[in-house]
## 1
Amino acid sequence: MPLRLGTQVITLKTRHPFVIARGGSSDYRVVWVRLADADGVEGWGEADPSAYYGETADTVLAALGKLEPHLPADPFDLEQAEARFAQLAPNSAAARAALSAALHDLVGKRLGQPLWRLWGLDPARAPRSSFTIALDTPERMREKVIEASSYPILKIKLGTDRDEEILKAIRDATDKPIRVDANAGWTRERAFRMLPVLRDFGVEFVEQPLPPRDLEGIAALRRQGVLPVIVDESCVVATDVPRVAGAADGINIKLAKCGSLREALRMVAAARAQGMLVMVGCMIESSLGITAAAHFTPLLDAADLDGAALTVNDPFRGATIEGGQICLPTEPGLGVRRR
Amino acid sequence: MPLRLGTQVITLKTRHPFVIARGGSSDYRVVWVRLADADGVEGWGEADPSAYYGETADTVLAALGKLEPHLPADPFDLEQAEARFAQLAPNSAAARAALSAALHDLVGKRLGQPLWRLWGLDPARAPRSSFTIALDTPERMREKVIEASSYPILKIKLGTDRDEEILKAIRDATDKPIRVDANAGWTRERAFRMLPVLRDFGVEFVEQPLPPRDLEGIAALRRQGVLPVIVDESCVVATDVPRVAGAADGINIKLAKCGSLREALRMVAAARAQGMLVMVGCMIESSLGITAAAHFTPLLDAADLDGAALTVNDPFRGATIEGGQICLPTEPGLGVRRR
């Protein structure tokens, strides 16, 4: 009997409007995916579409409908299933990532093992996650820093014309480690000016300072030697890694970009082969989506998995980032339950 | 209770002396490694030392003795166990590969799943293996071609001063696909002369035409555009992949070089990220060593896993290459038994 697919759109609400350099919102429509086998065991996954990559909850549903006839007969047949999905729905990474997570969840549940254990990983090696302070007025960003008091590492979204003001407001409120994500919002000129400012504010590293295709500019920034430079939008899948290896110090993996858990592991391997730093990021997601990404964090240097912690109506319980430490579930598969 | 380590040296005998460009022998001492858990479940692995990489059965035993106190408490803790082994015994890849295989075998047996299935692979995608005709007189090589009648792809070891004569003798005896391994036995001048000759004899690709460090020469040969060039000795571990990516069309993975099953998978990912061909090779090994490598062949383009088929006293039964097709066991773990 083939796997049965169930889908449900969930509207996640964030505590504050989540604004980055490209704009933002308080409502995020994600898709909860369920794959049931003949014994009624269910694998769960979540699609967290990014408008930046051309996906919405509706395109996700359409892609899932297209992929449904191509689900594997056996959920263990992961390599071929994912390859088929990638061929049939190349531009639906979020949808594919949900199916990938659901298949992995099902395999783990069948074997009675948490995914990190099937992958041979030590959950104690999961890094701490940063917690994002989204764009706002300096005063409100300072308030958010206080709300985030339990998180030891902050991530600041910049790429505006008041970046220095924002940094100063946050530095006045805390001396915690800060990481900066410019979401491709700077020009070369501005980035060259900003990196020393970031360093002076004690920033640990900067993500995607320039537009994705400006690898030359990114490489020049890196040669400046001021701060480690991580690429996110410039590096979507594993075949992008060799191209960015000469330009950046590290990559930021996201399941909604790369489209599968196995591709994420391949990105880790490809980046490590280049001696690069590797981190994982997320969208606004429930704990279901976050947990899928959390399972491979023992392989990483850094994580930004605050997507569920930023919401007020997370329907799931899975990996947590309480106190900043990523804590992986010990239940089989993804180890995610309804709240 | 910690895992208990058992070791036993086995002397494999080849049907014919196995001679390559660097010399050869008929007797091969390998080490059978057993890891028993508290329930008496045993994971098996095999160390196939290569003198070229400075290992012998005796250095393997010494390395295993050194690593024994550092075995994981839990065989599932593969990532950290392998990392520890690599740190403690960096020059003992064959010894480490045996422990890696034994741990993977144990995990698979505990879960009741063959390793390929735990890795999400489809055994039907395993490629065919070539069968090696070792260096000998042209007449005896022709005899060996006849003995190898059940194998559809032949691999010829060259790198001598009578390469053309050997090729002609073999081509006179068969029209099967031929692959050539020069084992770093040519000079640049000779390699440039030989590649068009190989092409004219219908050779599919050439392995390691020049010394490992002559990547410039290898790149120049590749630019000649005559035949795909695969590197073996030039590419030992995943961090070598970016370095050889500009020089060669593909890599040949061997467990006795890279030291672990997980490193082999990382090499596949790193090479695929570069768009490279990937094959797997072997030493003279029993079916135990061959089977460990066979489990990841569904990810590969080509395989040369004839190490056990070349012996006359293989103590094990596992993956087979009958008729050239790699056939993966369906039993849990590696799926290897005593004959």
## 2
Amino acid sequence: MDQRLERTVQALREVGADWAVLASVDGVAYATGHFAPVEAGPSPFAGGPTIALIDRNGTAGIACANVEAAAAGASRVTEVELYEGYAFDHGVDYIDSYRTAVGSLARRLGVGGRLAGERGHVPQILGDVLPVDTALDLTPPLRRLRATKTAEELAALRRSAEAVAIGQRRFLEALRPGRSELAVFAEIRCAIEEFAGCRVPITGDFISGAARSSAFTGWPIHRVIEPGDPVMADLAPRIDGYWGDSCATTSAGPASKGFMKLFEASKGALTHALEIIRPGMTAQELDAQLRAYVGRHGFTYPHHSGHSIGTAVHEFPRLVPYETAVLEPDMVLLVEPGCYDPEIGGVRSEYMIRVTDSGCEILHPFDHVPSA
Amino acid sequence: MDQRLERTVQALREVGADWAVLASVDGVAYATGHFAPVEAGPSPFAGGPTIALIDRNGTAGIACANVEAAAAGASRVTEVELYEGYAFDHGVDYIDSYRTAVGSLARRLGVGGRLAGERGHVPQILGDVLPVDTALDLTPPLRRLRATKTAEELAALRRSAEAVAIGQRRFLEALRPGRSELAVFAEIRCAIEEFAGCRVPITGDFISGAARSSAFTGWPIHRVIEPGDPVMADLAPRIDGYWGDSCATTSAGPASKGFMKLFEASKGALTHALEIIRPGMTAQELDAQLRAYVGRHGFTYPHHSGHSIGTAVHEFPRLVPYETAVLEPDMVLLVEPGCYDPEIGGVRSEYMIRVTDSGCEILHPFDHVPSA
């Protein structure tokens, strides 16, 4: 049995339930390997989110619309119930079809006893089809069990890290004054998609100039990059269901002294992180050390110091002041200190790392350079 | 009051309810102008879908996560309740915050009486916060009232049609043997995004070669386009909350006789549609005429003949054999007959049209050419 399915079963046992009812995109993806397409928004041909049902023995099934049949076929489950979302020669009530399919899957699998869901994710429309006990929530044990990655996940995340490294290399090649943020971003995304061999959902930030980059977050716009602009590429693509993430910031042409101060403090903080990360350290200790590092250079940053990643782009633990979780081997973390000055701009420097037995390793490093 | 809000109020009155509870991306967008970002999948910083509450007088409010503040700020509502989804210096339970924000908005607006939702969309987690009467479903009246477009919507849809025309022109410029589907698609998407000035969610199809194009649907992959390949670009971007759609198919280099047969039948069916569409005709009559046209050329197509469009990429009415709805002025329809032969490939030809008082007009025509 795939270890991710095993861990889902373990979560189920911890909450004392007989069946898991998964309805979140990342929860279904984690347990079953069914990676729903997301980049065009909610499907007009589905009656609700794809549902995975799993029992204490790891018996697993999926109910999804016919438009997601390819994802279901690639999943690790034994039972798949497809319903008609897309049809053209007769009318379909998607929601009735969805309810019927989930009910039929539940009967085929023999679902009964106590049902546990992910809080906030079970659709109301399934209330009578899958009477989930709202006192039994799989989210807390699942977030903990998902924090360290299995061998299969590490392989998937290495591939996502390779994709972001390819994207970051293309960023440096494509960046030049006179091009728009959107044009540079398009080249980056294309390089990542060529690597993946298919369309890739992508989040993160792509921002240039003092005002936009010092505001630290935003998607690319029509803005034309000017000589000396800071340009920040925070690239987070999902490759085969697993997200990667990364951030590099560079100056479009020769870097100013002000930019160099930001760059050296931010990049220095990332280098410092690589030296100090080890199992046994808490998330809040790492966060505090990175804030102290940039603080010694006269800067602060109005965001987290990082986060874990997997079938969701942000997972537990986060590197934040309040997080007491202890870092463990085979956690995969994004570490992303930054430095911001409204007059000059922002610089953020981020790698995807794996916590090892004694420290950490960068998953597919790429260059952070002050000017391109 | 914006006519879309007026029509939402009308739906509310028709079902006999006092408050509308909207939770679908397209329903919220239609009524309020709040266009949630969708192209990176579900936000890890939200506790549930953005909620719009509207009463019989058109009083309207929105509850959404702080990460959607920009969309809320651009909306037409008077009351906005933002909750913390993203925070870094203290822990947040997104779902509790979501529930609290929706409850707070409901109190501020004085929500009471009978609540109507869109069937299948109200989150279970709000069951006690917004006790929607499941017997009161806004979906049937809303789909009917949304079928004809308001002046503001026609302006928005003309802009989306212009975006697809720009995309289709770029398709012909970018297409050449030796390039991958993904590379050509990246250029097209960039042209559309440069027009919009921002990232654009896009769905549709991009498929080349006999096997892929005759299978009629699929997103672009790494496949390298070969001389003489049929290449189909079905481009559906969402610009400022309103979807556009379009399809052109061309041969990469000189077209074969077989391809020309497909092309002429498909393009001919589209031209025929433009001649016969008029108010008073039913959707199923139009569908039947287009199927008959390609049938006379020896072809069939395994999909609908078209559909309406708006804040959802597929809206009522669909051009399908079972749809008895009557076409009316100011409906905006996609008309997309196609011809498929597994040995040669597929050709689909699609325009976005507005039904006029006496016929139809193409919204931003573009060239359908047999070879590029």
